[in-house]
Structure formats: C-alpha cells, structure tokens
Amino acid sequence: MKKKFLSLETYRAFAALMIAAIHFDLNSPLVNHQLASGHFVQFFFTLSGFVIYFNYRDKVKNFENIKHFVKKRFFRLYPLHIFFLILFLIIEIVKFLAVNYLNVDVNSNVFVENNYLSFFANIFLLHTFLIDYTFNTPSWSISAEFYTYLLFAFLIIFNSRYKLSFLVIAVIFLIRMNDGINFGSPNSAYRSFLDCIYGFYWGVIFCKLYIILENNKYFLKYKNFLSLILIFFTFFSIINFKEHQLFLLPVIFGCLIFNSCDLDRKSILGKFICNKFFVYLGTISYSIYMSHLFVFWFINNFLKHILNLKTFVDNDNFNKLDLNVFQSSLLVVFCYFVTIIFSHFSYKYIEKKYNKF
To answer: Are 327 and 309 in contact (CB under 8 A)?
Structure first.
C-alpha cells in the first residue's frame, strides 16, 4: 500500500503554482516576484526520487517488476502529456491560419520550434534532449523524468544501497560542473536529463535516511521546528543561489522533504500545511503544471483578438495586453482560478482514468 505524505502534496502544489507564475506574463506582483522560479522543477525531481524510492524500493526486484513499474509510470505521465500536445498542435494550426489568411500578428514563428521533429520528439518523450522549448513548454520535464524512472528501475535491481546513488550523483556532478551551463537550465539538451537524475537521486538518498530515522525520538521531537527553518532557507536558496551554488538546491530540497514529509498534523505547522484544500491542489498539481500555459494562452488571446483589448509591443517585440497593475493582478487571479478548475476536470477525466493501469 502506497503512503501519501500530505505535506509533500502541499509542497507539490506550491511548486506548480510558482512555475505557473513564470508563464503568466503580466505586470503584477502576484507573479513578478523572486519565488516565481524554474528551480521548482528541480524540487519536483527531488520529490519524485524520495516518493518513488519510498513506494517502490521493495517492489522492483526483477525484469517483470520493471515492466510493471514502467507501465504505471508511463500511464501516470503520458495521457495528460499527449492531451496537451494535441491542444498545442491545434494552437499552432490556428496560428498558421490566422497569420496566412487573417493577417494576424503572433508572438512566435509558426511551425519553427514546433516543427515535425519536435512533434515526434514529444510523441516519444524525447523532447528533453532538444535545445528549444516546444509545444507545451513545461512538458520537457516529463520527458526527463520518464527516462530517469527507467534508469532507477534498472539500477535498483542491482544495488539499492547508498554507494550506487552517490556514484550516480558524483558522475553527473563532475560532468555538469565542467560543461559551462548552469545546473537546472531546462533548454540545454541532454543536460536537463542529467539534472533530473541528479535531483532524483538526492531524493532517493534522503528517503533512505528517512526510512532509517523515521521513528527516532530526536527526529520526531525536532522535525517540525527544523521543517519551518528549512522552508525559509529553501526560499532563501531559490532566490539567492547562483551558478555552481545551484548544485546545492537538490540537497536543500532533500533536507526539507526529509524533515517535513510526515509532519505532526496536530501541530500549528502541520494543520496549516496539511489542510484539505492545499493537499487537493497537490493532488491535481500535475494537471496544474501541464495546463497553466494553455489556459493563459487561451485567455490572453481571447482578450486580445476577440474582445480587442488594448495592446502594446514590448522591447522583445512581443504584443502584450496593455493593463495596469491592478488589472493585471485581477487577470492573474482569474488565470489561477481557471487553471485550478480546468485541472480538477483533467485530473478527474484523464489522470484518474489512466492511473488504474
């Protein structure tokens, strides 16, 4: 029976909402702040390593188990990915028709990055190896994560102890320290895959530590206090760490997950983090992560081209809605609201349907 760490569901929700903030390209302090960061994708990777190891450490022992594990992970990720890939393909076709037959200006070149190669890369979950963002931009991480699952399934058969995990981390660290591109840069071809493995295996290591110490009286006594300290330190690190310091982020994420995965729900911190609404947002966080860009594109273009709201051209030659801060903030709230509602239904009718496999 899988264990659901309620606090981690809330963390997952917060991470998804902060990534959405990056793509809600509006003049509002609700999204233009330092916690709106792509580093939360690395948090997802570390979290996946922790949860996957905890739930599957004793279940993957032979190649038949690998087959079952890969099938479950595939149907966890792929149906929603393919759904949004089709939606973004339709968007590209609509843009093509708008440019060529209605003389409408669009902010990106039609079928350039989103071409035949990138489409088939998305079909086979290989788009993490592309340099450019394509179609549903956030989905590059789904590609990286799926192949990390494959690696994990094969490696855990041969050795589930610390040595192999540290070896994987050390090898990737040495490769990435010397290739001139910062850790966590998503549009960096194979490096995004390596970074996923790096974060994932830090999650595995901290899960192993948790399994050893979960009933330790000192750990139980101080974990809530340490969790609060680590929440603030995690925020500080995301905001302030640069260049090679970024390699420490999965370690910090792992510390936070390790200390607060099983909070005392009777405590003030536990009651706040594990409340039902936050936990539900975590439950649908994959849908939030995958749907928010489509929601924003649809709302943004509806306001520009159907309601004909005033626009302006920014320094990057992008056509944007001309809204003041208050109007932008209202639109951000609306985009979040629609994203959550949309995600509720995509979770119910797509994710849950295929999670049965």
So the answer is: no
